Amino acid sequence: MPPFKAPTLSGRLRPGSCLRSRRCVSTQAITSDGITTPVPDEALLQKTKSPFYFDTGYALYAKRPPRPFPPPFLSPPSGSFSDPLSTHDRSRDRRLYVNGEMIRGITNGDDAVLVGENFIGANDGVGAWATRPKGHAGLWSRLILHFWALEAERDAYMSSSNTSDSEPDPVRYLQKAYEQTLSATSKPTEWHGTTTACGALLHHSNNKVPAEPVLYVTNLGDSQIMVLRPKDQEVIYKTSEQWHWFDCPRQLGTNSPDTPNTNAVMDKVTLQENDVVLAMSDGVPDNLWEHEILQNVLDSIRTWEQKSESESSGDRVGGAGGGMLFVAQELVKAARVIAEDPFAESPFMERAVEEGLAMEGGKDLQP
Fold first, then answer.
1. Counting beta carbons within 10 angstroms of the beta carbon of residue 258, is it exposed (0 to 12), middle (13 to 18) or buried (19 or more)?
2. 3-state DSSP call for residue 10?
3. In the chain, at which residue ranges do the beta strands (DSSP E only) sit?
4. Which of 54, 175, 210, 336 lies 20 to 30 A from 358 at CA?
5. What pLDDT, on a 0 to 100 scale, did the predictor assign at position 366?
6. pTM for this prediction
7. What does residue 274 show for φ and ψ, rounded to 5 degrees?
8. d(Cα 197, Cα 108) in Å, to the nearest integer?
9. Do the Cβ atoms of 143 and 239 come closer than 8 Å?
10. Element holding 169 (H helix, E strand)
C-alpha cells in the first residue's frame, strides 16, 4: 500500500486592519506542528493592507524524516576558522537558501508545507524518486512552494500599493514557480523529482462595501483544499482529485507532461468570518471521509472553546487564541489512527476496490 504522510494546515478567517506577526521554527522531526512556517525578517516588513487574515496552525506526520537538501541549497560551512567573524557566524546558519533567499516553508518527509496569514499550501512530493540517481522529491516540492509563495507575495504587495482592484492569478504564479524550480534544479545542480501542488490564497474584493473576503484555490494533483463553515456545520467547498490513473496523480516535475498552465484548476470561494480552510496532503482524505473530517474539526473547535483559562488566553470562540493548531493536531491524529489500522475502512480502500484491487485498511505508513 502507498505511504501515509499527513501534513494538515488549518486557517480560520479573521477580519483585522492590523495583521499579527507570529513565527514558529520547525525542528523537522518526524512529527511537528506550529502556528506559521518561518519567513525571513525582511518579509515581515512587506505586509499587505488586506482587511482579512488567517488564524493558522499546522500539524505534520511522516514515518521517516526528510532527506537533507544538497548543496547549493544548504548553506555550506566556512572553509577556515581564520575567516572573518561574520563569515564564521554565517557558517552556523543551516537554513536553506536558493538564489540568495531563505527557502520558505518546511519539509515533511518528501512533502512541503507553507503557512502564512494570507497563503497556505501543501505539496506532496513523490517519494519513489529517492531510489533514483539525482532524485530528490522533497527538494522539488519545497522549491515549487517557495517560489509560488514568493510570486503571490510580490503581487499582493504591489496590488496593495495601488488603488486598482487587481485580481490575483495564482495559476500564473504557480507556472512561474514551476519554471524557476526547473531552472534551479538543472545542470550544474541537477536534481530530479515530481510533486503535486495545492494552495489557497486569501484576497478581498475592493468594489464592495464592506470588503468581501475571497479565497483563490489552486490545485494540481490529489492533495486537497477544503473549506468548512462551522456555524452551519457544513463543507462549502473542496477540490477534486486529478489523476492520470488510480494512485498516479497529476504532478509537476521531471518527465511529467503536466504543467500549471495546462492542468492546474483554480476556483474562487467567497468566505465568511470564522470559516475554516484546510490544506491537506492525500494522507488525510485517503483515510478520513468528508463527513469525518468535518465532524473532527467541529469537535476540536468545541473542545478548544471549553478549555480552561490556564490552557489558553483571551477569546477562544470559533477556535481563536491558538485553536487552529489544536484543530490541525487532532485531524492528523485521527488520520493516523485509520492509517495504522489494517482492518479499518477508508476512502482509499474503497477506491482501490472499485479499481479491482484487493486491499483493506487505511493508507499505509511509510516503510
1. buried
2. strand
3. 8-15, 31-34, 52-61, 97-98, 101-102, 106-108, 111-115, 119-123, 194-195, 197-205, 212-220, 224-229, 234-238, 243-245, 248-249, 252-253, 265-270, 276-280
4. 336
5. 45
6. 0.86
7. 75, 5
8. 14
9. no
10. none
The closest of 268, 275, 277 to 232, measured between CA atoms, is 275
What letter does residue 239 receive in the DSSP assignment?
Answer: P
pLDDT in tens, 229-276: 999 999 999 999 999 999 999 999 999 999 999 999 999 999 999 999
Buried b (16+ CB within 10 A) or exposed e, 153-175: bebbeebeeeeeeeebbbbbbbb
At 358, is the pLDDT very low, low, confident or very high (cuts 50, 70, 90)? confident
Q: Which amino acid is at 198?
A: C
Residue with cell 531510489: 131
Instruction: Show the cell assigned to 277.
Output: 480552510
pLDDT at 322: 84
- Can you name the residues that pair with 115 across neighbouring β-strands? 120
According to the model, what pLDDT value does residue 139 have? 97
Q: Average pLDDT for residues 41-56, to the nearest whole number?
A: 71
pLDDT tens digit string along 267-302? 999 999 999 999 999 999 999 999 999 999 999 999
Q: Which pairing describes strands 224-229 and 101-102: parallel, antiparallel, or unpaired?
A: unpaired
Q: What is the mean pLDDT of residues 288-317?
A: 84
Q: Which residue has the cell 577556515?
A: 80
Among 138, 142, 145, 140, residue whose Cα is nearest residue 200 = 145
pLDDT on residue 83: 42
> Facing residues of 57 across strands?
10
CA 174/CA 176 separation, integer angstroms: 5
Bridge partners (DSSP) of residue 176 are: none
Going from the C-alpha of 341 to that of each of 169, 241, 360, the distances in angstroms are 41, 24, 9
Cell of 346: 477508508
Amino acid at 325: L
Give whichever of 75-79, 81-85, 244-248 has the largest mean pLDDT.
244-248
